[in-house]
Automatic annotation (TrEMBL):
Stated name of the protein: High-affnity carbon uptake protein Hat/HatR
GO MF assignments: electron transfer activity; heme binding; metal ion binding
Alphabetical list of Pfam families matching this protein: PD40, PSCyt1, WD40
Sorted UniProt keywords: Heme, Iron, Metal-binding, Repeat, WD repeat
Boundaries of every Cytochrome c domain copy: 316-402
Native source species: hydrothermal vent metagenome
InterPro entries referenced in this protein's UniProt entry, alphabetically: Cyt_c-like_dom, Cyt_c-like_dom_sf, Cyt_c_Planctomycete-type, WD40, WD40/YVTN_repeat-like_dom_sf, WD40_repeat_CS, WD40_repeat_dom_sf, WD40_rpt
Length: 747
């Protein structure tokens, strides 16, 4: 009985346990389902809030844009009034002189017209006389012809009489009669001779008269042609005179209009000032509304994107997709090379599409040309297809909306929106020496910075001790520059085929301050403006990028070369920028506007280095033609040439004491007197060709870096070698070391 009761109780207990577990399981499932519903509702809510905030921001932004455009339009109209006033003043200033010139021209034209009218009258009189003379000749010809006809009749009669007499003479035998007949025959013969002589005379006279008449016709034709020419010129002069009159009237009218413009401009400018002030107040109020709405919309959108990304319902373009495009697509679809007229340099370019049409189809994203060409392997062209995982990621990005991201600038280059590159740490030491591609002294001469592998090495130039290692940079360092006050250190480095960067560090502590510039190409050269406020950077993208140090932003881009830029320097006053290039030219640009000022095209080989004279009036260029060319900045003409380098020049530095230092590929550094071109000293203790050169004028030191990884430090006063440094890092005393095992890059 007890056993049965125990069994029943055990069964009931099991049933209760099973029931409890079942209830709990059901509760867990319901809980998960509820959580999913809540998450879905949360996403819907976030999407709605994001859309609402974006719509409010969009409306407010449109109003602000309209208000801003109104301000700009009013300012433009005000500028037009100012310009009109300025032009009116300028016109009035020159109006009297211009009017006198026009009146003088009109007088000259009037005189010329009268002269030509007189010429026509004279020619007409000559023609009338000639016509009268021709008429007289014609009359004489007519009379001569009549007289000739009469003489010819007389000739015929006399001829008949002579023949008759001769016939009678043959028939008459009476002597007395024969004498009479012979006398008649002789008289007829004599008369016939006289008549023939007269006929000949008249014939000759008629020929002369005909010739005279023909000459008269020719003269008449010439006179007619001359009259026609003079008449044509007179017509032209008359037209010019009418135009001159019209111009004078127009000038007089313009003078009146200019005076009216000048008189009315103060009132108009005052009205525009009032309107602009009112429009600015409206625009400012709207902007004050836009700023918080933009922040709210951005926060809402970022929250929504973050939630969607976390739930796997969205793919980040900047983090996931842009790096793929940069690595696999940009080489054939960029600003430099745009195959198929498809530029993927920016998100806006991707949206635009190419010659085959749009790349992204938002209605049927799975059939977008961007995806289908990647899936079928036709893109990337002549390269390995993308991995399946990357194709799947791009497909998911397209299907989930192909959004650029809440904070993405659609016009920005992809390289500028991807996450900041994290570079690998440099090795503790190097297995072999690396070429020293860049050197720079700090202003006090206590630090010499040299290029390394993913780092810059800071040395004591006197003791040769390694003081600091700055890491977190690209594989190859191409240039280093300290600001004139030593506050900043700028480094240009590149990871070949991937990224070019300019980074800014504290000149004393080595702390990373900012990423100043990112490009898809190598950055070969950088230079601080003499006042340290700006930095110029240039390289394989054939452009000069001007960066404001205070704001850490690019403020100007200068284009003007057809090949890689090898050097960039500021003039001593900071107003000009000079560039050297592999396109065999050197050029000078205005540092504020980017306008091309001068171009030096006489180089027959690539140009590698430039340096201004201390007064900024001349500039030196060093190229592969083994010569230092000196140019006048004012007219762009070549002033003179310094020869004797022996091989092509890699770098030039000038100093305030009229010295020029040039590094050459033949392992020498040559020091010249700038003003005379005279060789002062040779420094020739390198075992390999020289890549880099740095000069510290205040401490009379120069440093050179060669292909074999050696750095030489010299005295520029004596030419004596002060130190030899093998540019290979060795362990640093912990107290002096500032190397950190954490990249110094910041996003």
């Amino acid at each position: 009985m007890r056993i049965k009761i125990f069994t029943i109780l055990l069964t009931i207990s099991c049933l209760l346990t099973i029931t409890k577990q079942t209830v709990e399981a059901g509760t867990a499932v319901e809980k998960k389902a509820a959580e999913k519903r809540i998450a879905k509702l949360k996403i819907v809510k976030l999407k709605k809030e994001s859309d609402t905030a974006s719509a409010k921001f969009s409306v407010a932004e449109k109003k602000w844009i309209v208000a801003t455009q109104k301000v700009e339009q009013l300012q433009l109209k005000k500028h037009e009034v100012k310009l009109a006033k300025s032009q009116a003043n300028l016109f009035l200033k020159n109006a009297d002189k211009l009017l006198k010139e026009k009146q003088k021209a009109l007088t000259a034209l009037t005189t010329l017209m009268k002269k030509r009218e007189k010429a026509i009258q004279g020619k007409n009189r000559q023609r009338d006389k000639l016509i009268q003379s021709m008429t007289n000749v014609q009359t004489r010809i007519t009379k001569g012809k009549k007289q000739l006809s009469k003489l010819q009749k007389d000739e015929r009669k006399t001829k008949v009489a002579h023949k008759t007499a001769l016939l009678q003479l043959t028939k008459t035998k009476v002597k007395s009669q024969r004498v009479t007949i012979e006398a008649k025959a002789k008289l007829a013969k004599t008369n016939l001779a006289k008549i023939r002589k007269a006929i000949l005379k008249y014939q000759v006279g008629l020929v002369k008269l005909n010739q005279q008449y023909k000459r008269s016709i020719a003269s008449k034709n010439k006179l007619n042609a001359a009259i026609k020419t003079i008449a044509s010129r007179l017509a032209e002069t008359t037209t010019k005179s009418k135009k001159a009159n019209a111009n004078i009237k127009a000038i007089i009218a313009k003078v009146a209009a200019s005076k009216t413009t000048i008189a009315n401009s103060p009132k108009q400018l005052s009205q525009f000032d009032v309107q602009i002030h009112a429009a600015k107040l409206v625009a400012e109020r709207l902007h004050q509304t836009v700023v918080p709405l933009r922040k709210i919309a951005t926060v809402k959108l970022l929250t929504y994107e973050k939630t969607m990304l976390a739930s796997g319902k969205m793919v980040s373009f900047a983090d996931k997709i842009a790096p793929i495009f940069l690595k696999r697509c940009i080489i054939c679809h960029s600003n430099k090379k745009t195959e198929g007229d498809f530029n993927m340099q920016t998100f806006a370019g991707i949206l635009k599409g190419g010659e085959s049409g749009i790349a992204i189809d938002y209605e049927t994203p799975e059939f977008s040309a961007l995806l289908t060409m990647i899936e079928d392997g036709s893109m990337p062209k002549d390269a390995n297809p993308l991995p399946k995982a990357e194709i799947a990621l791009i497909k998911k990005w397209l299907i989930t909306g192909a959004q650029p991201g809440a904070t993405t600038n659609l016009q920005a280059s992809l390289i500028k929106i991807v996450p900041t590159r994290k570079h690998p740490f440099p090795p503790k030491t190097y297995r072999a020496s690396l070429p020293v591609t860049a050197l720079a002294f700090n202003p006090t001469g206590t630090v010499l910075a040299s290029s390394g592998y993913h780092e810059v090495l800071l040395w004591n130039p006197i003791s040769g001790a390694l003081q600091q290692r700055i890491n977190g940079i690209g594989q190859r360092v191409h240039d280093i520059a300290f600001s004139p006050d030593g506050r900043y250190l700028a480094i240009a480095a590149t990871t070949p085929g991937e990224i070019g960067e300019v980074k800014l560090y504290d000149g004393k502590s080595g702390k990373h301050l900012a990423n100043l510039l990112v490009t898809e190409d190598t950055i070969t050269t950088i230079a601080f403006r003499p006042d340290g406020r700006q930095l110029a950077a240039a390289g394989a993208d054939r452009m000069v990028h001007l960066i404001d140090i205070a704001s850490k932003k690019e403020i100007l881009t200068i284009e003007g070369h057809s090949h890689e830029i090898t050097d960039v320097v500021f003039s001593p006053d900071g107003l000009l920028l000079a560039t050297a290039c592999l396109d065999k030219t050197a050029r000078i640009f205005h540092a504020k506007t980017g306008e091309l000022m001068k171009s030096f095209n006489n180089h027959n080989t690539p140009v590698h280095s430039l340096a201004f004279s201390t007064d900024g009036k001349q500039i030196l260029s060093g190229a592969e033609d083994r010569q230092l060319r000196i140019w006048n900045v004012s007219d762009g003409k070549e002033a003179r040439v310094i020869r004797g380098a022996g091989t092509y020049i890699t770098q030039i530095v000038t100093t305030p004491d009229d010295m020029v230092f040039s590094a050459n590929k033949n392992r020498k550094i040559l020091q010249y007197k700038f003003s005379s071109g005279k060789l002062v000293r040779r420094y020739q203790y390198h075992n390999d060709y020289i890549y880099s050169l740095a000069v510290n004028y205040s401490e009379n030191m120069i440093a050179s870096g060669s292909h074999d990884g050696m750095i030489k430090v010299w005295s520029s006063e004596t030419g004596k070698q002060l130190q030899t440094i093998k540019a290979v890092p060795v362990p640093i005393n912990k107290k002096r070391s500032s190397i950190k095992r954490k990249p110094t890059t910041k996003k």
